[in-house]
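Fill-in record for S49 family peptidase.
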Amino acid sequence: MLHNNSYEHILSRACNQPQFLEPTYAATFFGALALRSGVNQLVDVNGNVLNQDQLVEMASSYGSSRERDRPYQVVDGLAILPVSGTLLHKYGYVQPRSGATGYDGIVSRLHDAMGDPDVKAVMLDFDSPGGEAAGCFDCADQIRKYRDIKPIYGLCYDTMCSAAMALGSACTERWITRSGKAGSVGVLVAHTSYEKQLDDVGVDITLIHSGEFKVDGNPYQKLPKEVQGRIKSRLDKSRDEFAQLVSDGISISKSAVLDTEAQVFTGQEAIDIGFADKLVNGQEAVPLLLDVIKSNNSIGVSMSTDKNPPETAKTGADSQLTQSDLDAAKAEGAKMERERIGAILNSDEAKSRITMATHLALSTSMSSDEALGLLKVSAKEGGQADDSAKGDSIGAALDAAMSDEEQPDLDTSGDADELSDTEKEEQALLAAHDKVFGK
């Protein structure tokens, strides 16, 4: 059997050794390995000879896809990330597992969602009573950074308390079910003393230590009042920081958060206190959020709760759009698109990420704020291009992108006073284009 030397180590471990593999996958695995090792054919356990074309087909059947690689579900542009059970620091698992969710897993999944072109918004589906203080605030800070790139909605279905409330406060908005529970902005430490039990069984433990506070809170003696006071002081400081984090996230005063005294609020009560924004049926939350994504307010801003449309809006039978209206709307749309592209490609972030910036500007519908946010957290490309090289790259990319589009025939000749309203709009459009890209 001929194979590449680079695969000798893998082959030595895969061949002539016991493996715990499901039979169908085993054939696929060895088929893919055979291709990469330069093997032209493979004989399976039934004596069937598989040629190279069949090996290619078999290997591709188990090839990775974006759907398989995603650590979250995507529904019509909405990434759904469950946050359930106890929240743990450095848990090591991307997905919730065994009744717990890791802060590291939440950040990892959000990072993937921010760079996923198919994701327009994210839902953190909370059902957690909280967890470890360690890692919580760092995770909340990351959520706040990511919400500036794409909207992140927190759904309390049905528990978002303590550490989970800290994470929920960092979201763009918080939705809660009628039975959902939110709040518990407080900190606790449980101390267990075995002193009396040890006395009863005749065990005497002596703690030899250096440093006055080294054995504070040990379980072998009743908690002294002075130690309890020091622990309480640290808890008060942590609670104050917790309240400030929630206050910063949901825009209510820190004193108002502290005044809740770590109470838990249900449904509408949580909305009244400011811990949630909208009451929803848990089964209808995803369809409702999909409507938000599709609306004009879906990207980069919170959903408007104003039920009365502006008086100037034209709706229903009163809507009478003329050709002039359509032309004006088309011109304004083209102007906004050119300004979006220019803001991305002419940004400081694009200077060392030209390839990615060009893709975001010309091949996606990301807003300029979203694109710049993603560029900031992305790795720089090989070398930093100078302004002339950047201009050449942008110009070439724009020419290529525009070559397939039908361009308007704009006639802007004549004095300004003689131009029609449409021609003035056309001149304004050209001026905007020149301002962004140069003549």
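KEY FINDING: DSSP finds 17 helices and eleven strands in the chain.
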